[in-house]
Write a structure and sequence with these properties.
- It contains 3 helices and 3 strands.
- The chain is an alpha+beta fold.
Length: 77
């Protein structure tokens, strides 16, 4: 998605609303993960949205998901 496309999509909403990023790692995941946008910045030559991931391991266990922080740490070892 290009920045201008994102801006056009966001114009449809009340500009005072909080933005929530929800995504899933599988089509079978009905709940998805929630990220709270933190800041927009440049990552290399691309624009990136950074976010806070606030789920705890207990939260993930309760809703039957894997903790993304834990998965990332295991994958980067």
């Amino acid at each position: 998605m290009q920045v201008k496309e994102l801006i056009e999509q966001l114009k449809k909403f009340d500009e005072n609303q909080e933005v929530i990023i929800r995504f899933a790692v599988s089509t079978k995941d009905d709940i998805g993960y929630v990220l709270i946008p933190k800041m927009l910045d440049e990552y290399g030559t691309e624009i990136a949205i950074y976010a806070n991931y606030e789920h705890t391991k207990e939260d993930c266990n309760f809703i039957g998901q894997k903790d993304l922080k834990e998965l990332w740490e295991k994958a980067s070892d």
